[in-house]
Specification:
Length: about 350
């Protein structure tokens, strides 16, 4: 395994790989900030020979089977192309998978055409709270899944892609038939993870399940203001009950009996547990022990496709049917920068 980036998220990825030393051998670590790279290496006792200032050189010299990069979204496609050129078998990277549908499609196509097993770090699904809800759903105790709701205070490009992925995960990967949506506010389109200020969507899937979701400044809040980045919720409505989970360890369910509680918080789980589980599953996938990773890039692409359909619906005031043709879909973020009015929300 070789990795580019040791910023805040990159350190979590690298820590996980070092924790799984029985599954991965870290052969190279690269960052454009030499001081940050040396400081991380010194803290972990890594030899200078593993450190690189140039990603191309690192891959050429180390020839890793798996390439991880924790970079900003505008570098996703170039990093994937770099991995393809150097014959990697696996790719791991952060969300959102791209800043446009065409880039996302190019990434998914490159992985498919070159037999690369790519995964996107939608890691909340490993949280104890999410796993409790999933076990209840899979046990049949809640009956048949009928509707999924997802909310998060953070915007589409920050956590919205996470929760779109969790909707697909909860619904067994069924494909979307159509989407309608609303977006407004352009201020956050200037963010490193560009998004409208608020996104609301309604989707019907091929298995008849529907999903409603909202991301951004007007979304429903479930926590105190100080927990903005954890203020999100996934709710599963079923024929005999419902269950919900959030990112800070809380969950609940009502079926034949009321269940729920508070498990390990985000701070207790995220640095030491979630990313190692994500990488352990990738190792199992590469070793052929499982057929598919739960963060598979192809499913991540479909989630990104649905979010683009929601934005197109909002801009064109129509229902948008899926799948989309990436070659004919304009850059929805560029359109929103041109067309959405400014409407900063009032601070409470």
């Amino acid at each position: 395994m070789a990795q580019v980036g040791v910023g805040a998220r990159g350190k979590i990825h690298a820590d996980a790989l070092l924790q799984l030393s029985d599954r991965y051998d870290l052969v190279g670590l690269c960052d454009i900030d030499a001081g940050r790279l040396r400081a991380y290496a010194a803290a972990k006792g890594l030899p200078d020979g593993l450190l690189y200032a140039d990603a191309e050189r690192m891959l050429a010299e180390t020839r890793p089977e798996v390439f991880c990069f924790a970079t900003l979204p505008d570098l996703r496609l170039p990093m994937v192309e770099l991995g393809v050129r150097h014959g990697v078998r696996g790719l791991s990277f952060e969300k959102p998978m791209a800043n446009s549908l065409r880039e996302a499609w190019a990434i998914a196509r490159l992985c498919r055409d070159h037999g690369i097993r790519g995964v996107v770090s939608h890691q909340h699904k490993y949280l104890t709270s999410f796993q409790n809800c999933r076990r209840l759903l899979d046990s049949g105790a809640l009956g048949r899944l009928e509707r999924v709701e997802a909310t998060c205070q953070a915007w589409l490009g920050q956590l919205g892609t996470h929760y779109m992925d969790y909707v697909l995960w909860a619904n067994g990967g069924s494909r979307a038939k159509w989407a309608v949506g609303h977006v407004h506010g352009r201020e956050l389109l200037a963010d490193s993870h560009p998004s409208p200020n608020y996104t609301m969507g309604h989707v019907e899937f091929e298995n008849g399940v529907r999903a409603w979701f909202e991301f951004g400044r007007l979304s429903a809040s479930h926590m105190a203001r100080g927990k903005f980045w954890l203020d999100d919720r996934l709710t599963l409505y079923c024929s005999r009950g419902h269950a919900w989970a959030d990112a800070d360890g809380r969950w609940g369910a009502v079926a034949s009996e009321t269940l729920g509680g508070e498990g390990p918080t985000w701070a207790e789980q995220e640095p030491t547990r979630l990313q190692p589980l994500y990488y352990a599953e990738l190792a199992d996938w590469l070793d052929g022990a499982i057929d598919r990773h739960s963060c598979d890039v192809q499913m991540a692409y479909h989630g990104y496709e649905i979010l683009n359909a929601v934005c197109l619906s909002a801009l064109d005031h129509v229902r948008v049917d899926l799948p989309l043709d990436p070659a004919s879909v304009p850059d929805v973020f560029a359109r929103m920068r041109r067309e959405l009015p400014e409407c900063p929300e009032r601070e409470e």
